[in-house]
Amino acid sequence: MLFEKIKSEILAHNSYIVGAGGEAAVIDPRRDCLIYAQIAERENMKITKIFETHKNEDYVVGSRELARPTGAEILHGAREEFGFGTGVREGDTFRVGSLELEVIETPGHTVESISLLLRDRSVSDDPLMAFTGDALFAGDVGRTDLAGEHRRQEMSQMLYASLHEELLPLPDGVIVCPAHGAGSVCGGNISDREFTTIGYEKATNRLLSMDEEEFVEYKVNEKIYEPPYFEMMRRLNREGPPLIYNLPHLRPYSAREIRSLLGKKAQIVDIRSPTSYAGGHIPGTLNIWREGLPLYMGYYLNYEDPIVLVDDFNLDLDSVVRHFVRLGYDNIAGYLAGGFAAWFKQGESIERVGTWSPPDLAEHLEDPSVWVLDVRNINHREEEGHIRGSHHIYVGHLEEHLAEVPADKQIVVHCDVGYKGSLAASILKKRGFSNVTNLLGGTIGWEAANYSLVRD
């Protein structure tokens, strides 16, 4: 029997390929899907089935892309109309060699969510694995707010029923294979465990020990941010995303061409570190570090205007392009040839962002001309504490709240380390704030320097 988990890092997306007897099935494939065909070829198997456990909100699904070269059948929950594939219902079964995949309807995260129960009939009639999509994670369960606040209670009740009537009655030894791991925005606090079981979750997952009233109240009041690009993902994944066939080819732009794009409808993204960006950057550019791209590009980039990258050495841009493709940004266009060095070698003007260490901020904490802005997740601020006197605006919502930031003060931005702080600083600089400083080290460096955080 073939079983392999394919992880898409940063997005914390898990997809799976299972197979036996020369056939294979893929569950929740990503858009850059060549890896599944390569695994099947390695195992001398043909991919005949592709399952989508739900329409997904945080990435573009890859089922249409994978079905094109393989001819595999696409299967998804029947409770919502899709522009592709075939709807399946509770109790439907599908054979893949000696393996049997049984559909279990588990709505709550979305209305059409399904889970898949896997049995290897050549060995036993007992279930071996459950592919639970976004219903059940390691240490957590799916978010229930994505259908809208007006349906949050209803969706929470649905999820409770799905968990307690469909998944938890399964044998304790059944291996749970969720669609996401730690760090995903599709759950509140997913545990960092590669594998888990039904029995382990029943014993350790605190949400599963709640009665229905407590569970629903918790989910209704749960604080999880929804990036604006989720709406685009829902539409693409419902209607069927466009086929890309291959990763986009990036065009090299000269420094003069980049200069001609400034002020026009082009999105120039500096993917360097906070320190590199602070030391000098192309005026008006947005700073999203490489690993932060999947987390924050969806807040600040649109799907129409060309996207051009600025790096230092343009190393491994292929992996960067994959981040854009997985989120549907087919307008990724090119990069600054020669890296940022090409810009200053041509004598072009640069902008800078100030940087402070924790001792610098401590020295100026009582200065009325300094305005400290905390751009962390609100849950981190409430649970871990905050720097005394700081104000809070989440980095993903900063542009919506610029009127709250005083233009006549020195703005000292901080997060937990400095990366989101640099993103926030770049937004403020782009929007005309001239005196902006990023606290390098953030709250982690603040505490390491023996300064305290306060809790309200």
From TrEMBL:
Gene3D superfamilies: Rhodanese-like domain, Ribonuclease Z/Hydroxyacylglutathione hydrolase-like. InterPro entries: Metallo-B-lactamas (IPR001279), Mito_Persulfide_Diox (IPR051682), POD-like_MBL-fold (IPR044528), Rhodanese-like_dom (IPR001763), Rhodanese-like_dom_sf (IPR036873), RibonucZ/Hydroxyglut_hydro (IPR036866). It comes from the Archaea. Residues 262-352, 366-455 form the Rhodanese domain. The keyword Transmembrane does not apply. Keywords: Metal-binding. This is MBL fold metallo-hydrolase. The lineage of its organism: Archaea, Methanobacteriati, Methanobacteriota, Stenosarchaea group, Methanomicrobia.
